[in-house]
User: What shape does this take?
Amino acid sequence: MMKVNPKLLGEIRKYGAFDITACFNCGNCTAVCPLAAEDISFPRKLIRAGHLGMEDKLLSGSEPWHCYYCGECSATCPREAMPGEYMMALRRYQIAKYDFTGLSRIFYKNTWVQILLTLAIFVGSLAVYLGYSGDFGALAGLIEHLFPIYIGIAIVGYLVNFYRYNIVKPLGGIKLSWKPKHILDIFLHGFTQKNFLGCEERDLWRWLSHLLVMSGYTLTLVISNLHLLEPLSRQYTPFDPVSILVGYSGLAVIVGGLSMSIRRLVKNAQSSRFSHPTDWLFVIMLFLIGLSTLATLVANIALGPGSSVLALIYRIDLAVETAWIILVVPFTKWIHIFFRPLAVYFRHVKNEAAAKTASA
Ligand code: SF4
Ligand code: SF4
Assistant: This one.
């Protein structure tokens, strides 16, 4: 039996700026949505579920992850119900529900707590790193090797719940699809953000900014989690493979992040009219991580691994990384990069299960 939660809409409203109580079900939003299809009829279907308090339906739907927030539905809604922003709020709501620690829920509702804690971790770890008198390169290696364990636990926790709500509960058990195309789609959508272009065919710059940020951010995570950059023990040249990786990832997040920030500040597109405070925390940390890693590399190339200036910059870089890994990566929109491609795969699994039932 479907569980009804009369307080559901009030709860979701805490995650974004929308007013779907104004919706009179005209269907314009679904008609204009370039990504709505026969099997993903959003956003109206989810608006209806929100009105009726159907919590399980909202938690088991991967639809918010197919939406790229072009804002076309919000722009054409005659009631200014902001269906596009409702989709973004649903994503934050799902993340909060799937997070087994409960911290995402606290942070989304009280972003200042997350900002203050991030700042405290940065200042605290910087003080420890500045006061450390041993081999700092070895300490940095140890810390960076602990990062993937921490991130891995967070990601597995989210994904288990995402799978449980999306597949196990609605389909009544563990279901997978082994078709190569369905598995390849996970990587195709993860790396290229392919559906973005379907959403806004003419806004190539938004797609490119998004792609730069996603690729740069993912690469930065790989560089730090695999401890690829060892600036205190190695002399890098500008064309060293590690220099190229660090250079690309740093510039990609700075350029992509700058472009996204300008759009959010100018607000000339529907998709950038509303920014949740966690969106800003994400963007600011993007800059800091890109800048501090690039500055570490440049100081190494220009001054050599024994430089005291490099030693200071590297300690700042590691303090930024520590705050970023502990509080920003698992609890902001960064985690989206895993949800989107899996939502595409889950859709295949659901369609396959539906086709089997129909032919049975
Ligand atoms: S366009 Fe607006 S009023 Fe019409 S169904 Fe969508 S949200 Fe409701
Ligand atoms: S924001 Fe764009 S992709 Fe998302 S539901 Fe609205 S029209 Fe569709």
About this structure: DSSP finds 17 helices and no strands in the chain. The chain has two domains: 8-98, 111-353. The first helix runs from residue 8 to 13. The two ends are 24 Å apart (CA to CA).
